[in-house]
Amino acid sequence: MIDEIASQWAAAMDRGLAADERVRLDEWLAQDRRHKGALLRARAAMSVLDRCRILAGIEDGRAPDGNALANDDHALPAWAMPFARRRFLALGGTGIAAALTAALTFTLWPRGTTLGTDTGEIRRIPLADGSLAVINSGSELHVAFSDRSRDVQLTKGEAWFQVAKMPDRPFTVTAGSVNVQAVGTAFSVRRRSEATEVVVTEGTVKVWSTQAPEGTFVTAGHSVRINDAGVAVAALDGEAAERQLAWRDGRIVFEDVPLSQAAAEFNGYHNQQIAVDPSFADKRVVGSFQTDDINGFASASAAMVGGRVIHDNNVIRIVP
After folding, report:
1. Which one of 19, 132, 137, 156 counts the least CB within 10 Å of its CB?
2. Phi, psi dihedral angles at 292 (to 5 degrees)
3. How far apart are CA 54 and CA 62, in angstroms?
């Protein structure tokens, strides 16, 4: 039932949500922690099916011979039927898994491949083992799966993984000198210049590094920060975890953070940059913002700290 509803919401998000729909979606996501994972799987499945349509030549409503296709999926030629979006949405539930299996078979994902995102882009990508990767803006990872292991190297940025359970094939994410290993769980890894941060949302992961080779087990509802000083584990309440991972839904949530830090976070999603006057750098801001609404964030933040916004070519300045 959850997957059926998730597929319906995925379709609604694809066409664009009205204000009242966004409220109802937020309410549904808050009802059960499984809802968010189901929605991510449904949206990832849709993106894979879109890829299949393109590979099959079904793009912009045209077949490989250039003839226009009917809007109704039932009118598609036989070779296009397995990848019809509406047919996928009608499947719901276990049909999502079946559709993903068919799509992944068709796309022939290589065992070793590099996946990345441009500035401002967030991608949901099903992996060949049935796991799901959600890749944040300006990030890059290399995936290398074998019969005995599943290895992912995060070369920059951040990604969240929902790992398919395969006890005999451990799933390991490496970010510089830090390693995070799981069997079947969900967690994010963020690689920064000064530290690597991990947030565990389901199950348990083992974290180790060059500085701490003995390893630390981190359970759901906890985060861990690894740097030259060592490994620091902290408990997270549900809201804190949601704030840290809100980017998966195209949002950034701030709860009493310095404006300079908030601006730096927003700058990671835009070529246009926000510059904060030093007198406002330590002023605190709160709020939930869409990652693509840099002007809305700048205006709201300026109001919170008693400043104003000046547009200077490709820079948005928050000044006294």
Report:
1. 19
2. -90, 5
3. 10
The answer to whether the CB of 9 falls within 8 A of the CB of 21 is no
- CA nearest neighbour of 276 among 254, 293, 290, 297: 297
> Quick one: tokens of 52?
């299949």
For residue range 34-71, list pLDDT tens digits in order: 787 777 767 766 555 544 444 444 444 444 444 433 33
- Distance from chain centroid for Cα 84: 24
Contact (Cβ atoms closer than 8 angstroms) between residue 255 and residue 243: yes
Q: Any idea how long the chain is?
A: 320
Is residue 206 packed enough to be buried (19+ CB in 10 Å), middle (13-18) or exposed (0-12)?
middle
Distance separating alpha carbons of residues 25 and 72, to the nearest angstrom: 27
State the Rg of the chain over Cα.
21
DSSP output for 92-109 = -HHHHHHHHHHHHHHHT-
Cα angle 246, 252, 254; round to 5: 110
CA 178, chain centre distance (Å): 21
Model pTM score: 0.69
State pLDDT tens for residues 140-160: 999 999 889 999 999 999 999
Which domains are assigned to the chain? 2-106 (no CATH), 112-241 (2.60.120.1440), 250-319 (3.55.50.30)
CA torsion through residues 192, 195, 199, 200, sign? positive
Residue linked to tokens 């993984």: 161
Classify 54 as helix, strand or coil: helix
b/e burial code for range 83-98 (CB count within 10 A of at least 16 → b)? bbbebbbebbeebbee
Cβ partners under 8 Å of residue 293, min gap 6:
none
CA angle 304, 310, 311 (to 5 degrees): 125
